[in-house]
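User: What would this chain look like folded?
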Amino acid sequence: MKTSLASRGAALRATGPVLAAIAVSAFAFTASATEDLNVIGWCDITDPELNGPFEEAFDVRINIKTHEDPAVAQTIIEQSAPGDWDVFHTDATLVATHVEAGLLAELDPADFPLDDIFPQVLRRDLHFVDGKLYAVPDVFGWNTVAYNSERVDAEDIASYDIAWNPKYEGRIAVWDFYVQIVQNVGLAMGLAPDEITMDNLADVEARLLAMKQNVGVIGDIATIQTALATGDADIVLGGGQWIVTGLQEENPALDWIVPEEGGIFYLESVGIVASSEKKELANEYVKYLIGAAGQGRFAMNSCGMAMPANSKAELTDEERALLRWELKDTFLEDSHINHYYDQELDMAMIDAWARFLQH
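Assistant: Here's the prediction, encoded as structure tokens.
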């Protein structure tokens, strides 16, 4: 697999202020819920509109700890007592790494509507290990470029080169997630994510540092989304439909694009923690998330809308239009799946990112 999440890099990301910043939330329809289900995942799993129907149906309270990096999440699970966690919401490209670490339980394919999952995202090389299913895809989307169409020229936004255009000095926000931004910079240089190596990382870093003069904001998801919404930034590198779809009703000028050099698409997947003592309930929850009703709610979550993996997701025509449903196949064809790297390259990227932040 591409990354050893027990690496020093993962450990660094999982300590100090990072852990302190991770949020915990719980939603319950009834204070007298008879059971708790503990979930660790991206912020899009926290929406009460998504979790509420399951909580009510199963008389359960869902407790959620959010992460922005599955490396952090794996470290948290590894350092927790057995039984502390039940469901793990992660990046599909890291499922095999989690399995290798003993973190995920085997799933029964018959429990899930796999025939309804878009074939481009039901990747056997990602979700199956030695022929056994360990996670199922739930939502996906693009980490490309989001922007304000009233303040950015259409011909400029068509290419990642806009990030180096002096016309936009101080007007660019960058997501503080080194893997994604390094990959976006790589695309601008004609490098697919899996073509970034130790041999060319210095060139990628030089291109990254050259962009810094145009950057006015660097931050987490909430920070870059707020910067775009308030006008503190006109362009978000690393953003996509998940940044703008919840903001477009208030400001229709906010948009996103897959540039001509291509995009990075993320694929989120969900599995059951191997040490969970509530595997049956956890399995029901995963079934709900992947089912048509759950998928419709998941796609339209308040943290950041995303494409559902289930082709039969219950969505209105308006919601499909917001998600650009009709363009998903083209966008997938023009994009590269998010990529994680081996320990040596991962650490080198972390060092390069630190120099970018300090530059």
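The chain has two domains: 33-139+267-323, 145-261+337-358. If you want, I can go into more detail on any region.
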